[in-house]
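subagent[fold] <- orchestrator: predict structure for attached chain, return C-alpha cells only, no commentary.
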Amino acid sequence: MEQDSRRAFFKKAGAVVGGGTILGAPAYVRASPEFTFRFQSTWQSTDIFHDFAQDLAKKVNDMSGGRLRIEVLPANSVVKAFGLLSAVHKGQLDGGHGVSTYWYETHSALGLFGSGPGFGMDANTFLAWMSYGGGQKLYDEVMQKELGLNVQGFLYGPMPAQPLGWFKQAIKKSSDLKGLRYRCVGLAAELMKELGGLPVSLPATDIVPWMEKNLLDAAEFNNPTSDRALGFPKVASVCMMGSWHQSGEVFEVLFNKQRFESLPFELRSLLRYALQASSADMSWKAASRYAEDYEDMARRQGVRYFHTPQDVLDAQLNAWRKVLSRESDKNQMFRKVMESQMKFAKKVVGFQLESQPSGRSAYDFWFNRRRGVD
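subagent[fold] -> orchestrator:
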C-alpha cells in the first residue's frame, strides 16, 4: 500500500516536471524578447559605473527568462550625459542610468536625492529613507507633479562618502579652497560657493580634459576606481579623503513612464526586485574594487592621500546650514524633502551611532597600523 502511494506521488511529480513548473526545472528562454528597452548611462564605457549599469541589465535579462531585455549604451551614444533626463521623458530613450543630482538645476529638491548633506545618513541609510521613510513618494512628487515629467525613477546602489577631491597641493585649512576652480555638481556646488570656491559643473568625461587645459584647479568625482579610469592621477597627485559634500550618494535608474507602465505587473515587480538585488551586489563589488585601486594608485602612480582636515569638515557643516536655509526659503518642496530626511535621520542615525562601535579602533587593534593616509 505504501509503495503504491509512493508510485502515485512520483508519477504526479513527473507530470509536474513535464509541465515545467517544478522548482529547479530548466527555465524557458525565449528566442526573442517581448519587450526591449534601450538605455543609456551617463558614464564612459571604461568606468565601473557603466559596469554597474550593465550588471543591473544582466540581472533583469536573466531573471525575466528572456521576456524583457535591457540594452545599455555608454554616455554620449544617443545624448550627452546631462541630456539623459530629457531624452527619457521624450521617449528618445526607454531609460537610463545616472544620478539625480545631475538634475539639480531643473529642480533644487533633486539635489537632496544625491548631493545633499545627508544629516549623518550614509547611502544605505538614505535608501532606507527612500523605501521606509517616504522618500520614494517625495521623489515621484518632484519628478511627476512638480516637473510634469513622463518619467518613473528609482534610486539604488549605495556609494561610500566621496573624497573631497583631487588637488595639486594638499588642503590644510578651509581658506585654501577660496578662489579654486573646482568641479562639483548639484547642491555640492552651492556648498562650494559658501566656502569661497568657484564651482564648475561638468559631466565625468570632461573633467580630466579640462584639468589638462588648466581650466580647473581641482575636482571631485566619486571613488578610486572611477577616478583612476578617468585619469585623475595624470593631472593631480594629491587626493583628499573624507568630505561632507556628497557623503551618501546613490544611483538613479530612469524609465520612460509610459514604457514602464506598458509592462505586465510581474515584469514591473521584477524590475523593482532586480534593483534591490543589484543594490547589494554593487556595494559588494565596489568594496573590493575600490580598495584595490586605492592602494594601486599609491604604489604605482605616486598618488598621495591626505585626510581632509577637521577645520574643512567643520566649515562644510556650517556652510550646509546656510545653503539649506536659503534653498528651503526659496522652494517649499525643497523644505518638505529636507524635513522628511531630517526626521528619519534623527531617529535612525541616532540608533546606529549608539549600537555600532567604531571600525577604526578594531582596524588599528587587529592590524597594528593605520591606513596609508596622512
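orchestrator: received. Logging for downstream: Residues 188 and 245 are 5 Å apart (CA to CA). The chain has 14 helices and eleven strands.
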